[in-house]
Structures are given as C-alpha cells and as structure tokens.
Amino acid sequence: MKRNVCISAAAAVVLMAGGPVAAATAAAADTARTVPAAAVARVDVTAEGAADAAVKHYPGVVESLDRDGSVWHVDVVSKDGKGHAELELNAEGAVTQEDKDANEDADEHKALLAAKVTAGQAAKAALAAHPGQVWQVEWDDGDDGGQAPYWHVEVRAADGKTSDAAVDATTAKVTSPPSDSDGDDDQDGNY
Fold first, then answer.
1. What's the angle, vertex CA 119, arms to CA 115 and CA 121, rounded to 5?
2. Would you state the pLDDT for residue 179?
3. Hey, how many other C-beta atoms are within 10 angstroms of the C-beta on 153?
4. DSSP class of residue 171?
5. What are the residues facing 35 on neighbouring strands?
6. How far is it, in rounded angstroms, from Cα 155 to Cα 137?
7. Sign for the pseudo-dihedral over CA of 156, 157, 163, 166
C-alpha cells in the first residue's frame, strides 16, 4: 500500500511539473501504439493510375511507363510534341519531375500523338489478355520493321512468369510482339 502511494505521488509530481504537455505526450504515445498497420500501409499504383497521375503533373501523352519495384518511371510528351518530361511516381502516388526538355522534334512524336489507344488503355487491354500486373508499357512506332505503331506491354503473372503483348495503337487488339527485323530478340524482353 505504501508503495502505491509513493508511485501515485511521483506521478502527480511529474504531471504537475510537466502539466498538460506530459499528459498529451503520454496520450500520444498510447495512440501511436494502437494505430492499425493497415492505416499506414503503402498504396500500390497501377500502370493506369501512374499514367493518369503523370499527365496531371505534365499535360501530354504518355510515351512509356516502367515499374521499378514500387516506383514508376514515366515519360510524357507534350500535346504539341515539342516537350518531353521524365517523371517518377512513388508508391503513394506522389509525382516528381526528373528531367524536362522543351526542344523535341515534333515530327518524331506524330504517330504517338495521333494514336487512338493511350498507354493506360493498352495496359488495360494487355491485362485482359494476360492476367497479372503490368510492369512496362512502351510506345513502338513500328518504323524499324515496317510494322504499324503499337504498344509493347509486359505483364507479370502471380506465378512470376512474364508475358509480352503488342497492343494495336488504333484498335487495342492484343497480339504477340513482332520479332526483331534481324531475328535477334533481346533476351530480357526489351524490344
């Protein structure tokens, strides 16, 4: 009993000396311990979400999306084709601008700017054909092999297998990507 009185007296002295600050600190410490882990879990941004966030930050047309862990690297071409920005999007959806250029050759981006299917739509079409998560969406103007322009999309399935898809830039039809013109496909799946 005497011990309890001493502890209570010591607590009273601390509260009087610290006043409301000590009480608030104790309450905050208790609250911090009870915050559920789900409340601080990170958000996993999809390819479509990354494309939307990127063009809100830098208006234009997405040229490529590349996922590196939980970070998206996104290249956007301005609507007039003369500007280009390299953006990074973290797991929470925050966009940072890595590089920006205002001296692009607009003719180089004509096909991309005229495409009826966006990078986000290409990702969605590829996922319909190959369930999983999109890890890369890249514009290919088809000039190298004489093909029509298309989106190259890499999808990773839950079992870790990767599927490559070519999404037509006009119809969103999903097919296999064309082979390199010299018959030597890149072993890493890059075209």
1. 90
2. 66
3. 28
4. T
5. none
6. 9
7. negative
